[in-house]
Amino acid sequence: MMMSTPQRLLRSAALGLSVLLAIGTASMAVEGATVLPDRTRVASVGGSITEIVYALGEEGALIARDSTSVYPEAVFKLPDVGYMRALSPEGVLSVNPTGILALEGSGPKEAIDVLKKASVPYIQVPEGFSHDGILQKIRIVGKALGTDAKAEALAADVGKQLSEAEALTKDIAQGERKRVLFILSMQGGKILASGNHTAADGIIALAGAVNAVEGYPGYKQLTDEAAITARPDVILMMDRGGGTAVPDDELFAHPAIASTPAGQARRVIRMDGAYLLGFGPRTAAAIKDLAVALYGDAVKK
Fold first, then answer.
1. What is the pTM of this model?
2. Is residue 208 classed exposed, middle or buried when 0-12, 13-18 and 19+ CB atoms within 10 A define those classes?
3. pLDDT tens for residues 176-193?
């Protein structure tokens, strides 16, 4: 049902007032809290956080999720409070949460500052693109929900799976490890690629390969010369679906990509973004799938 202009204005004013009231009672919030006092209506921000909540069997506590939370399918029944890096305090607080679990890197900073000052307990979960980083997330989420024992059991199981997945490539000689170029986007023919300290960099290393680009953190637009110098054996991309992915013909027609070993062999691996880069309970499976795609029979077990 379409709202009239006065109705939309009243709703907007009400949401704005809720934020002001929340800030006005900020003294009720627990600074540096590690446990949510009331776990009946939790808003989860960050796909891996939401996956962990489900893996712990605590999904009944969830009242809302952000748009990066796309697994398991049941999450789509929850209200969406927006993209984790473009949150609005009004959107998050409009679902009346009793607690917020948010992955490090959520933003913008101004919105997070408002949420941290609100009366709703806010727990930030550190992001780590490593074996230990995943286990830390599980333990922090479990503690926040008051399910420490279940979290330890899940961490032990996930840790075992991760060790097994990492072991698949232990016998690959250093000189035979694939050089992988992760391309986030190619808008206008400009290559936006992953450097160090990213989820892509982490998953490439866990799968026994080498990031073809180094020397800078995060994502950066590559010059054609830099892409050629990287000498990737394989291009890794997210499978975006919905017709938004760069087609193979367009990818390999790019002059810089065409000049690389990956371009000459037309080697590209595409995987679901949340699965590949989530660093949550499914990451061991993602490591195995990527390792097999990179090395084939050499790592199949």
1. 0.89
2. buried
3. 999 999 999 999 999 999
